[in-house]
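Re: beginner question about structure tokens

> Can someone show what the tokenized structure looks like for a real chain? I only ever see the sequence side.

Sure, here's an example I had lying around. Input first:
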Amino acid sequence: MTKTFLLELGLEEMPAHVVTPSIEQFSKRITEFLDENRLSYGKVKKYSTPRRLALMIDELADKQDDIDEVAKGPAKKIAQDENGDWTKAAIGFAKGQGGNPDDIFFQELKGTEYAYIKKHELGKSSNEVLENLNKPIEEMIFPTRMHWGSTKFEYIRPIHWLVAMLDDKVVNTKILDIKASNKTNGHRFLGHKEINIENASSYLKVLKDDFVIADSEERKSIIENQIKNIGISNSWIIDIDKDLLEEVNNLVEYPTTFYGKFDSKYLNIPDEVLITSMKDNQRYFYARNQNKELAPVFIGVRNGNNEYIENVIRGNEKVLVARLEDAQFFYQEDQKNDIAFYVNRLKNVTFHVKIGSVFEKMKRTSIIANIIAEHLDISNDELMALKRASEIYKFDLVTGMVDEFPELQGIMGEKYAELMGETKTVATAIREHYMPTTAEGELPSSKVGAILAIADKLDSIMSFFSVDIIPSGSNDPFALRRQAYGIDRILNNMNWDISLELIQKEIINKFDENDNFEKNQVEVTEFIIERLKQLFKNINMDHDIIETTIKSTTHSPSIIVKIAKILKEQRQTSDFKETIESLSRVQKISEKANGNIQENSINTNLFQNESEKNLFDAVNEIDISMNNLDKLFQQIKELHPIIDKYFEENMIMDKNEDIKNNRLIQLNKINELGRIFGDLSELVIK
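And the corresponding structure tokens:
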């Protein structure tokens, strides 16, 4: 016999961003609890609002499954004395298993006989098991926690009620001093403080009758359809942003969508400012007319019904207009000064107390950007634009608009730069230097913007590492991992071959010793290369190839990605296994003896047979070009039969020190070729 199980946790309003992950965690913890306690169940339905997390579980078993198992006890010589009588150890073992010594039987295990007892454990009733439901609920983890009253217990928000029912019966459980019942709360303003649930299966209807739509997907669909209807009725194009829809959905229990208007005079403000005011600050959706121009309207979602909706609209219009008035004021005031004024103010803005000002950061970034540009194919115009952009790219940080709307940094830099006479290339680079703003966010599309973005991020990483502020564990307050990953993604996207090791050396040579960039140079390279693992996972790269290629001696992220793709493709070929085995053998010998090599040039006069000369000639003919890695790997593949022959005819560790050293030098050169592709010993070959 099975039952429908309802569990609802009632809380103060949770932050919108917490609701979805919380119901997922809630479901996971409860189902794991049921699994651990041998209670079988059917479909699990998840419901959530800002004030509740709920599960409805179909076909929950009436009781635990019975279990039959064999318990192992002491060895026979301990369980029985020399007369065959039961010892205290045997009696205690039997009692502990719920039986008596007569239930014991012996069985041999690895040459020794042990005492065993067969156990048949009857399953407890589901109601008895569910009495301990408080444990998985109380153990939930949240990004922020609070405590209330006199208890030390902490949770995302104070708990107000608990519903736990098996069909029409209440489960005997509680959290803190809150006992489970069949009473829930309706909508905070439209519903009742306390409503009865007669049966678990009636949960959704009971709440809907009291102005609560507990099914988050149903609420989302209602909001989306209402917005679409508003758009159709007014011939507007409305961008239903998925993230905003998710957030708004987790702010309401009974959604009603409305639209309001604002004066068209505010349309002279850049669209990005208006959208930020609506979307980010007020959680409104925006609309465009049929010409795709921003319309002077906004779409909001109310947590309630249509009653007094006109008052709601007027109130929201007043709030938005106040924000737009501020934006218009800052937009006009900011244009009264030139870029030089704002750049000079950056001298008094601290980037970090241990590193210096934002102005000083821009000076360093300008030098780094120029070093990077020297390795790339860019025009004189692009070089001039890069120089100018790197000298001013943070100026908007001290404008009134960005102070009021920090999320517009870079965006307002681009707008103001164009208004103040800068070229489109310079203005675009100012916006793009922040990219990507999230781990998988949009990348710079212009060369100048990409170089500036890399330079700015590289300066941040090198600067923080120079003062020993290095991410560890989950601690990364300055988002250095994201910035490193951004460097990898940009280099790969632009297909730029830049060695992080080489670039850092050139940067260090340009700066004073006091900058201390040399201190953690190797760690910086490893830190950025390590982030490639995230990129590789996103393109489903094999784990062993990831571990192989991130140890490539090129230290060039874009080249490492190409190498990984080549290895993945090549591992399907018939001679891949033999090639890797030959190179791995070379690597093992070479790296073991590397410290004993006396010099680095091969003396051909010390060759004793043709196999040495053939290997020498074959290696010298290899064209080490990063521009054609496929060809390079093919050339290395062609070495493997020559290497095998070489090992057959030569003893590497010859008694003659000169000959031994000469052969080790040769193997070291081959190893250097192989290490371009990484640590080949990490590859799994079959």
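Each token stands for a local structural state, so reading them left to right follows the chain. The chain has 28 helices and 18 strands.
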